[in-house]
Amino acid sequence: MLVGLIVVWLLVNFFKDPSEFAAVFLIGLTNGTVYGLVAIGYTLVYGILQLINFAHGDVFALSGLVSFTVLVDWLGVTPADSTAVAVGGILFTLVVVMAVFATVNVTIEFVAYRRLRHAPRLAALITAIGMSFIVQNVGLALYDVDFRSASGLIPRTNVFEIGDVSYTWNKFMVILITVPVLVLLTWFVASTRHGKAMRATAQDRDAAAMLGINVNRTISVTFALAGALAAVGGVLFLTQFNMRYDTGFELGLIAFTAAVLGGIGNLTGAVLGATLIGLIQAFNEGLAWHAPGSDWTRSIVFGILIAILVFRPEGLLGERTPEGA
Amino acid sequence: MAREQRATGGGGGRAALLARTTLERLRSRAFLLVAIGLLLFYPSYVDSAQDLELMGEFFPSLNSMVIMIVFTMMAVGLNIVVGYAGLLDLGYVAFYAAGAYTAAWFASLQFEQVTFHFGAVGVSEDLPGIHISIWLVLLLAALFTTVVGIMIGLPTLRLRGDYLAIVTLGFGEIIPQFVRNGDSIAGFDLTHGTFGISPIDSPGFGSTLNDTFGLPESYRQATNAQELFFWTAVVLLLFTVFCSVRLRDSRLGRAWIAIREDETAAAAMGVPLMRTKTWAYALGAFFGGIAGAYYASFKSGAFPADFYFNISIFLLCMVILGGIGSVWGVIVGGMVLGWLNVEGLATIGSKVNEATGIDFEVPKYQFGIYGFIIVLMMLFRPVGLIPERRHQRELEEGVHDEPLYDATHEGN
């Protein structure tokens, strides 16, 4: 019923102004991609520790701010530079920031979560909330309350253009970087020894330990992966939008919703959920005919979250777990 | 107590034990009375305390005390949900908002289409809007918030643990956003949007009671308004604490604790899970509503900027610092953090800056500091400053040690 209404609403919007619809669709796709990178971090950690790592969104925001330092302050890349310089700068920044935030995320796990592995689950969750505020305030201390952005480095020339709708390199770059990262991640989880250890640990930590898997190291690897992916998200977000120390809170919650929507613990699900949430947000904020508007984005996203948790806690692609039953 | 004595059996030890427990009880009673006395007479010595050298700045003003007490009330309410029943609620701010807006609806100019007066004080008879006596509004707010609590609780309480926490967080975000955007719900101005609703009527007893018993007619017009607001806050806090302690020891309270300890076992012993959890939600919300409504009347306004996620975490931090489940601990945690929030951090910050010569804005990082407190407490003293006795025993004896085979995570 509700889904039907939404479909009708989308169709009406589409026929009223197809080019606007397509433009909004592309914005949603770009946002969704960034959400996906963060959502995978939630899903990976949840899969292995059953912990909602609240600090993840703030790690993402801090990584974006740090990449501003690397890209703009250190390398001095400005919109006036040629595209080759900008691309080189962004790739170099990516590598640096991914390494830094993989380390940061591993440290967070080591300091705050490892000791609580045998404590009640809510204790770890509460600690994660505390860590979230700490990371956020590190961002506040280092970068104050100003917004940073590095948009405009990649020229907004068109990849292709159909009618009024144009798809710019600026946006296409997000996809260009994310897809190889995701392919690499899939390969890592599916085929490498570490990846297999991760999946085994996620399934049954005790049995994995009995089979000689170093559980601590595997969990560290997971956190490193999550941190690196958040950093990719951070760099990409910085090249598209403004961000500051508290950007990560809301974006983290959106990404978490995406992970739950797709089925928490499921990598494909996280990407699918993030794309859907990105589209929903863009449609809500961008469409002209009877859209609730950005004032209501948060309510809509959380409404989806609540509805999913209450009616289909396993998400779109997940397996049924006793938690939600 | 009685059972403990019986268990130790007769003989000479019994009399000594009885004497000891009586003494202990007397001591804790005396301590309690002294604490309440010190609190009640705070207005009479606050000025001289603030004049003390070095220490003086650390005594909060009466206005700050009211804020601290109101937040402590909310923390005690939250403790019912988080501490007794073990349901992590990350959206308690929703109840605070619901309470504050009830006061704003029933004791202000908001609905100027109607003119309805019932026992309101300090406003002229022909003023438009609904004006009901604040005492009744407190009750209305409590009931309304309870209904909100039940409405949030019923669909979501089936979920367990962290999923429930996330859903409450969702409601804690949706309700403030609803309040912020609620200035044209189908063209009707329900919440006056980002401006909030202000002014809100003052509490008071009206002229009749003033003439007969000398009770203050209207707080805000009285010369000792601060003291009146303070004492009323203390009375409300005492009421909350009394209810909270009695609830803990009631049949319902024991059911909550049973659920907190082991949901499956509690259900097997015949504790109705849904009903018991919903009651925890409803009663936790009840006190949040009273606190919110009183605070709105004290501040004479309800503003959406007050209801953000961090408040929920701030309240949770009070509960954790004091001791999850321990009423006295939560009061201490609430007063300490409340003080840090309204005055303490600024005072400490300026002292530190004076002493070291650096320029560091401590209050700016308040939530980083609270986050730090949360993490440190969870890592090193998860029972809190003043632990609940039962909770401490469990942690020391390791009831919670994770078994190799965890029955709660198997299908059910």
What descriptors fit this protein?
heterodimer, A: 325 residues, two-stranded antiparallel sheet, globular, B: 412 residues, 16 helices, 66% helix, disordered N terminus, disordered C terminus
Could you explain the architecture of this structure?
Chain A is globular and about 60 Å long. Chain A is mostly helical and 325 residues long. The model of chain A has no long low-confidence stretch (mean pLDDT 86). Chain A has a two-stranded antiparallel sheet. In chain A, helix 10 (247-262) packs parallel to helix 12. Chain A has twelve helices and two strands, in the order αααααββααααααα. Chain B has 412 residues and is mainly alpha-helical. Chain B has a domain at 60-307. In chain B, 66% of the residues lie in helices and 2% in strands. Chain B has a two-stranded parallel ribbon with strand order 1-2. In chain B, helix 5 (93-106) packs antiparallel against helix 6 (134-156), helix 5 (93-106) runs parallel beside helix 7 (161-181) and helix 9 runs antiparallel to helix 12 (273-299). The longest helix of chain B is centred in the C-terminal third of the chain and has 30 residues, at 327-356. The radius of gyration of chain B is 23 Å and the shape is globular. Residues 1-10 and 399-412 of chain B have low confidence and may be disordered. The chains are: A mainly alpha (325), B mainly alpha (412).
Largest interface: A-B, 47 and 49 residues
Could you state the oligomeric state of the chains shown?
Answer: heterodimer
Structure annotation, total helices of chain B: 16
Please report the distance between the alpha carbons of the first and last residues of chain A.
24 Å
The main sheet of chain B orders its strands as 1-2
Global mean pLDDT of chain B: 84
Low-confidence stretches of chain B: 1-10, 399-412
| Fraction in beta strands of chain B | under 5%
Q: What does the main sheet of chain A amount to?
A: 2 strands, antiparallel
What's the β-strand tally of chain A?
A: 2
Percent helix of chain A: over 70%
